[in-house]
Recover the amino acids of this structure.
């Protein structure tokens, strides 16, 4: 069944790419808007194919450049068909992308889980919990207790191997990558208490600023879930923007705390990339959950 779904997506992507629909969307619907794409842990060979393809069709810009344009209400610094690359979590495999980042002058933003990078702690969804997705619906304390009971996971537990970037890699990448915050431990923030939520937002910023000796001004919502409470805390603690997993493009009228994105699978083919970057699969997926405007349904 899974192979059938992948083949079907590949066929749809092929049709979208070569029928002219991809061109129409890029040249007409989003020519004067900015696209943000979101990766997690792509392999260098896949990332290379994507960047080579995108570099001939889009103008790479940094996330901060986009946010400044939105906040200043001045789009004159944003070229047509702009594209900002973002990468979530801070996986150790991201280091292998550095040569490509340099070569193509991408200036990506990598959103770090501040209290997992530079440690042997684990990402909670990569610890071997069966059907970890159902934990996204638990309140934060219930989630942590279930992880403890089932797989003996604790947020601050140090394991024998690491999953995240270490400090040496972060420092080497810093001249070419904009490191920003993705919370401390990547909980679903809307399932956290007020104090837990505040600490994840405030604590990650303070920790990363000390670790990297730089200002941290941008945030990415873990799992894409957010509410007005999270936005209120982000403003209170000095963040300028937050990236969602809502589908769509960004322009001068966009809310900088609700930046829209196109999520790209780590192993996506070029055909699937074409459909993904224009929102096709994202809109269809969310539609299955009853979301008609590209807003990410909760807890998926």
């Amino acid at each position: 069944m899974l192979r059938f779904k992948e083949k079907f997506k590949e066929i749809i992507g092929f049709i979208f790419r070569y029928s002219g629909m991809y061109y129409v969307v890029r040249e007409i619907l989003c020519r004067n808007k900015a696209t943000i794409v979101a990766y997690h842990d792509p392999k260098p060979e896949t990332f290379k194919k994507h960047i080579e393809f995108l570099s001939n069709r889009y103008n790479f810009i940094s996330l901060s450049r986009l946010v400044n344009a939105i906040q200043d209400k001045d789009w004159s610094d944003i070229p047509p068909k702009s594209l900002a690359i973002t990468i979530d979590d801070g996986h150790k495999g991201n280091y292998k992308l550095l040569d490509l980042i340099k070569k193509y002058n991408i200036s990506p933003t990598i959103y770090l889980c501040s209290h997992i990078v530079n440690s042997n702690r684990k990402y909670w969804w990569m610890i071997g919990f069966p059907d970890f997705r159902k934990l996204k619906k638990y309140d934060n304390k219930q989630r942590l207790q279930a992880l403890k009971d089932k797989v003996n996971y604790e947020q601050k537990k140090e394991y024998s191997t690491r999953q995240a970037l270490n400090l040496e890699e972060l420092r080497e990448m810093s001249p070419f990558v904009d490191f920003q915050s993705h919370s401390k431990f990547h909980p679903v923030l809307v399932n956290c208490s007020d104090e837990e939520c505040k600490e994840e937002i405030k604590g990650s910023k303070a920790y990363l600023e000390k670790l990297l000796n730089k200002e941290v001004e941008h945030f990415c919502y873990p799992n894409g879930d957010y509410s007005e409470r999270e936005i209120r805390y982000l403003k209170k603690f000095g963040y300028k923007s937050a990236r969602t997993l809502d589908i769509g493009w960004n322009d001068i009228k966009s809310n900088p705390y609700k930046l829209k994105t196109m999520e790209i699978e780590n192993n996506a083919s070029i055909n699937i990339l074409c459909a993904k970057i224009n929102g096709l699969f994202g809109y269809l997926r969310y539609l299955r959950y009853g979301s008609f405007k590209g807003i990410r349904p909760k807890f998926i």
Notes: The chain has one domain: 2-288. The beta strands are 34-39, 59-60, 82-89, 109-112, 178-181, 218-220, 241-247, 259-263. The first strand starts at residue 34 and ends at 39.
